[in-house]
User: What shape does this take?
Amino acid sequence: MAKAHAKRAAAGVTDRAILILERPVAGELFTHWDRPLSALPTGHPVLREFATKAAHAGLDRDEIDAWCEAVSVYVLPWGAAAEETRAAVVQRFGLLPGAAEPIVLALRDEVASQADANAEASLGEAAGLTRTSIERIAQEVVETIDRESLEEALSSGACEPVDFDRPLLPTGFYEGIDVQPGHIAAGLPAPRQALTGQVVTAIDREESILIVGPSGVGKSTVMWTAAYVTRHVLWYRIRRLRDGDIAALVRLARALKPSTRSPVGFVVDGIGIGSAEAWDAIQRELAPIPGVLLLGSVRSEDLLPLRSRARCTQIAVTLDEDVAKEIHTGLTASGATTTPHWREAYEAADGLTLEFTHLLTKGRRLSDVLSEQVDRRVVEGRQTELDILARISVAHRWGTDLPVRALQRQLGIEDVELRAALSRLVHEHLVHERLGHLSGLHQLRSGRLADAVHAVPPPVLDETVVAVIRMLTDEQLQPFVAGVLTECPDLDAVVLDQIVVEVGQRHGTAAVTGVLQALRLVDFTRCATDWKQILDRHQVALAHRRTLLQLALLDGDPLLDLQPEIAAATAEIRAYLPLSSPLRDTLVERLGTAQLAQLLAQCTEPTETQRVLAVLTGTDLDLTNWAPTLADSQFGRLLTGSSIESLGTFSQRREPCRWIWRTACWNSWAERRLF
Assistant: This one.
């Protein structure tokens, strides 16, 4: 400020200097534009701090008083500035708030350009914006706005602007809930500066970012903190990431007219197995657009299905001793813990930040607290609440939520009873409701709660799993089935039985395609786990494991003169070959050729057909005997009406599904097109 003030004095400028800040000073908002510091009450903390620093810089009392008379402080959070600008634009041009956003970004971009130009310019040569230039910039953008694209993704609920200006109350925060932007604004999470810095650096490089780690390790805290400190980015939160939403999200990104100076970012908190393909698709579409950022968090166990992971910067979140010290220091400073040292809680937390924080703030393990809440309901006979907890905790543990009305119908209870039960569960931070859907507060917490509810039957876990499957949408089946069978292999038979029932009752291809893909993922995960156990048992060094697996997957005789442990492990892994998918193949066999032919007959789009063929890769399925069924179907008409390029895409599946090329020749016209 001293340099700026000297410039102003040299140029003969006598107007009051105003220091504009984005954040409150010592918790205080300064909202009077032209009130000098000298107008503050005597002894005000800001005056005391200013006087101390000024004296340290060599200013005498008269100079300090002159500064206080000449300078004002004004606090204008970016969110408030953007909101006021947006409101002015809406009023001036008659736009909806969502359609005003590109104008706000264009004005911010121009202000930033002027600020850059003024960095080295003299005060007399300083650039600025007039009312006329502001009107011109806004009018030029208005003429190019695609209002429909701007409003589509927002009105459908697929995404929403991130709100960093409204702090959330700390109620229940340290009991184990998902961190939200409002928690960051309230300063509740302990800082994790090193990890946050890595994410911010990647944001500055405009990279697609994946924050990776197990459930409960603190991924959301790191992700939202990084977004909070990069508020020059216009952040949107993707609430629903499905294939059907991708086009609208991409249109929104383009319609906002992002630039490197005024970037737009999209955040996905929790990329589950069911949204892996959608993340890959949106990363592929958004990455080439300058000024568009993509930031997501994903559990370590859900990383495998992401094909785009190699194109993303991956930042691993862990709880190590340095982070534990940092969190303990932050919690102590905020008064959230009185525990004198972090070591005991750290050793008991099993590497989970949520558990560590809970031990420090509550003095007990999360599972003990949840078991006590469940036991109290058992003793008091609150069966409806137990039934609700069982279903919601199991659903959320494995990546899904439940519609309120579907849960009510299954339990057969009236509105009054359901409302009373949910009110108590929400009050005790056991259940969360949003837009008519119920879930737990954190995936790890839901897992602990599910264990507590099912510790002493009834209910029995397999019965609850079946009950949840009956309430899930087609899109929810994939993440839920994959999650259940990955953690609980003893439920294979129960889940497969219910899947056969569900497929017979549902229309379209989404349900069976998602389930078959889930079973393939489970089979692959189990195979990888077995391979790791073989490598561990033979004590194969980490540096040799990748090469060993490549050797094991090669055809031909094994190489000679291998180290004994490598030769033994290679031979044992080769016993698994050829690779197969037993769970998927079991379901295919149980569904039968006739039902799968009917499934293909429902395909109406090339992409839908490709998904069905993809999940059948590697089966011995032969549908040639069902050519009449398929020929007189949407699939048959799609095939005969497709271009050579589209059929070439289908042909990538021809080796495992030999019948595709034979069914392509149902009529002579298709035969002429292909051959």
